[in-house]
């Protein structure tokens, strides 16, 4: 029986994860669950945001269902003890190099998008973001120049193996959709991007059925708000992916609707809503659990080979939204629990 590690975390993390768990329980999928503390909750109980038991459970489990970390009580701690280090540590320790971020507008939520409804309606894309390399993990620091000036530096780097493996995830993802892959880089200026483009083209030889195209990141940012419907699957590096995926998610409506997956390429993954712990609404039953519920659906599809159950959950969320179920972020009055109930009722 597959084991799911539930790492609910801080703030609204436990509230939304509880609803995802209720949806999974309702489907009778023969899953077992084990929970562990992470983030500020773990720091307060055990003195570290990612205790060894938590990491061990995440490794042992077939998949991790993650809530969110972040706790205002921990803001003054040294960086390595902050709750947010837990999610960075999990990605690194578990080798979760591929971040899938679908962004689509659910029918009925046109008014929630920052784009005009007729444009917002066309968004239905997946960003495949590299997650364990790039400028985030290169040499960095603040040093003093010969002239006595402080100088910050962060090295951007990718080797060809890192590029090839994320490119393959991009091509494979494209095959499950429209067989179109757009690679986003800044090859007109950056050598790292030139290598990126060269390697993506080399890998494309193995995917003759997928139409590959390229775009510079600045143009991609513009096109995303001009005509999001032109995008289907986008593969890009860590920094560009960070920025473009946040931009895409806002085009698609509330942050409370969007799930994500972080994958190791061998079926193991961590699934989480894209939002954080939302301390401003924590404990008030106001959080939208749909992003967490949709993350559970991604887990069933990508780690547990249960695509039918994933489809059922996604259809139930769409039906609940179309039927008018709305938490406050969507302009409604439902509590977190009531939104979970609406999704469960739509499971049929
Ligand atoms: P946030 O995503 O927690 O909240 C941003 C805004 O969106 C807030 O107004 C919040 O109320 C609202 N919001 C978020 N999720 C919602 C939901 N499900 N339903 C309704 N409204 C929702 O981002 P913020 O405020 O920048 O960060 C809060 C904490 O979360 C920080 O400690 C941050 O470091 C952490 N964080 C953790 C992440 C993770 O665990 N992967 C990701 C992003 C932030
Ligand atoms: Mg971000």
Automatic annotation (TrEMBL):
BP-aspect Gene Ontology terms: L-leucine biosynthetic process
Catalytic reaction annotation: (2R,3S)-3-isopropylmalate + NAD(+) = 4-methyl-2-oxopentanoate + CO2 + NADH
Residues involved in substrate binding: 91, 101, 129, 218
Any one Pfam family match given in the protein's UniProt record, by short name: Iso_dh
EC number in record: 1.1.1.85
Amino-acid biosynthesis listed as a keyword: yes
Binding site for NAD(+): 276-288
Ribonucleoprotein is among the record's keywords: no
Gene Ontology MF term list: 3-isopropylmalate dehydrogenase activity; magnesium ion binding; NAD binding
Chief place of localization: cytoplasm
NCBIfam families: leuB
Quaternary structure (record): Homodimer.
Family named by the database record: Belongs to the isocitrate and isopropylmalate dehydrogenases family. LeuB type 1 subfamily.
Protein function: Catalyzes the oxidation of 3-carboxy-2-hydroxy-4-methylpentanoate (3-isopropylmalate) to 3-carboxy-4-methyl-2-oxopentanoate. The product decarboxylates to 4-methyl-2 oxopentanoate.
Identification of the protein by name: 3-isopropylmalate dehydrogenase
């Amino acid at each position: 029986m597959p084991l799911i590690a539930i790492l609910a975390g801080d703030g609204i993390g436990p509230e939304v994860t509880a609803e995802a768990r209720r949806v999974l329980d309702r489907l009778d999928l023969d899953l077992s669950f084990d929970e562990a503390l992470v983030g500020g909750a773990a720091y307060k109980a055990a003195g570290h945001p990612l205790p060894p038991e938590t990491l061990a459970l995440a490794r042992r489990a077939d998949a991790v269902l993650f809530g969110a970390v972040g706790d205002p009580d921990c803001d003054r701690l040294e960086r390595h003890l902050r709750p947010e280090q837990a999610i960075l540590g999990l990605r690194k320790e578990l080798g979760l190099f591929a971040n899938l971020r679908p962004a689509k507008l659910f029918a009925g939520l046109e008014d929630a998008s920052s784009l005009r409804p007729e444009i917002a309606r066309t968004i239905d894309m997946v960003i495949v973001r590299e997650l364990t390399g790039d400028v985030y993990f290169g040499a960095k620091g603040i040093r003093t120049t010969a002239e006595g000036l402080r100088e910050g530096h962060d090295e951007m780097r990718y080797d060809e193996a890192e590029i090839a493996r994320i490119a393959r995830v991009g091509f494979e993802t494209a095959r499950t959709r429209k067989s179109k892959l757009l690679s986003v880089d800044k090859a007109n200026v950056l050598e790292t991007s030139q290598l990126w483009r060269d390697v993506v083209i080399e890998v494309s030889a193995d995917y003759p059925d997928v139409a590959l195209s390229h775009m510079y990141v600045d143009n991609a940012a513009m096109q995303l708000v001009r005509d999001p419907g032109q995008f289907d699957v986008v593969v890009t590096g860590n920094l560009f992916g960070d920025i473009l995926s946040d931009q895409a998610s806002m085009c698609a409506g509330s942050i409370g609707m969007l799930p994500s997956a972080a994958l190791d390429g061998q079926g193991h993954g961590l699934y989480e809503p894209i939002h954080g712990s939302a301390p401003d609404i924590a404990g008030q039953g106001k959080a939208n659990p749909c992003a967490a519920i949709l993350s559970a659906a991604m887990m069933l599809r990508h780690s547990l080979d249960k695509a039918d159950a994933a489809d059922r959950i996604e259809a139930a969320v769409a039906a609940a939204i179309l039927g008018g179920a709305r938490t406050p972020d969507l302009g409604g009055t439902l509590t977190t629990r009531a939104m979970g109930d609406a999704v469960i009722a739509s499971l049929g």
